[in-house]
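BUG-228 | component: ligand-complex export | severity: low

The export step for adenosine-5'-diphosphate jobs runs without errors, but we want the raw record kept on the ticket for reference. Input record follows.
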Amino acid sequence: MVTADSKSTIEQSALSALKGRIPLIGLTGGIGSGKTAVSDLLTQLGAGIVDTDLIAHQITAPHGSAIALIEKQFGADFITTDGALNRDKMRSLVFATPEARKSLEAITHPLIRQETTKQALQLSEEGAPYLVFVVPLLIESGSWQNLIDLLVVVDCPQETQIQRVMQRSNLSREEVEQILAAQASRQERLKHADMVIENQGSPKQLEVEVQNLHQKILRFQKDRLSSS
Ligand code: ADP
């Protein structure tokens, strides 16, 4: 029998088949650090982007692949009238009940892995020179370290993160601080980084940083091919 877990192992091995063929880059950073801004710029430069946060949203959007399973596990109360996950209700539940968070993740994580693998293989077949996996909680999850060749951390001062997220997501300072408290610290993230994108300047400065990153990744692949 193919269970959700054994299936995800099969998919992970499909993903690791890409290892050594093209650079596999992990991109992480705290909320509001600029991961989406960086991945948008990398897309323009031709990178293959797999955004796990976007996938997590898609599977819980109206009639997404996680909806029927969530309804079965948690009840119809957790589904909105248009067939999406009721995010506010679920946020309150998982915040108060660690067991509920585990049950939710047991549904969503295999589906996210499945879609991540599908998109990565497709982008590679389409000729992407390298793949970038955008994973907000990459450091915290621990399960990416073996797959990726290079870890890129987007970094800026915490106060900048707070200001950006308050503006972008219309949240209060307390709400943003609560999210930050549940994430790895800036120091912890930087400790694991192979490369750091400083994003405390202007959007124009970020563009230059991202162009440099793109060149470094291409050089990484060139060096790897010439030494093999
Ligand atoms: P993340 O994906 O890491 O949560 P985003 O890329 O969404 O962060 O950036 C958070 C907010 O800050 C967005 O509204 C984005 O447009 C803005 N932003 C990102 N980088 C800069 C920058 N260098 N200058 C000004 N605004 C920025």
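Assignee comment: Attached the raw record above. The radius of gyration is 18 Å.
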